[in-house]
Hints:
The protein contains ten helices and eleven strands. The protein is α/β, with parallel strands linked by helices. The protein is globular.
Amino acid sequence: MNRPGGNRRIRIERSGAARVRRERARRFRRRNAPRPMHLTERDVEVLEALAVHRMLSGDQLRRLVFGCSASRVRRRLRTLYDHGFVERISVTAQPARGIPPFVYELSAQGVEALGEIGVEAAKRGASGLSLQTVRHKLIVNDVYITLVEATRDTRYSVRGWRHEQDLKLTGEDGGGRGRAERVEHPTLEKPLSFLPDGYFELDLGDGTSFAYFVEVDLATHAQRVWRERAQLYTAYADPQAGLFRRRFGRETFRLAIITTPDYRGRSRRNNVLDSIGRTVGASPLFLATTLDHLQADRILGPVWRMPGRQRPVRLTDNFSGGGVVVRPRRTVVRGGG
């Protein structure tokens, strides 16, 4: 028995599916005859940002470069895409929390355009990366962008930002493609690879500055990984060994850990800090917060916690007379992660 309008409803559904496929195809297909354009200074800033950060979402580019409405950003990025200066990389066909439908990266033509104005860049494709890797990299980029937003119109400033790929050793030490630094120290049972997600220096504008390494934790590792990292970073901070001083030209640093928010009474941040505290003690070397605090009006505030301490602290708080010096000590922790 045929219900009235039944076939019509089926045809509408098929038409809708076809429309979605056509819209998706247009997203990743350049227009055959786009309107003429010329590269503006802001366009160059977009290309330079992609050269530095490898991949950025449209919203991240809006916050970092454009500073205007989302619709204007979409139109300009579409123009840059149609003219071949940027690539659009499909991330996921379905909406996913924290992952945009596509991200932008520098194209070969974009690299060439930067080269013509004396800016060296390399094309590092995002295609082939897992969703987890893309999300992780976008969050690391968001850490930098949020810090830039938080320090605008203040006496503070963020300088010297380096991504993971920029922290690899190159040349004679790292080979042609670069590699992670290998850390050897008396407190470590074996040499460990040292390759944080990022590095930056926070200048307070009064002659004081702090150096920070960044680790973004998406709760994909066992706690034993954080026990190992606690030993690794503590060894790297040892002033007698001088590993950090020799490479970065500074005496002290801190580690900023950004992890997943609390869920159903479970706190990944507290578990990470507990693992660190049981390994190296109540060390002010380590600060941790959660992704929901990754906002311009919060990231510099008292949303950070240290192992073994209840009182929250700020990134700009001064510990140990302007920096953190922690002597590593060996602690054996038994039990699984």
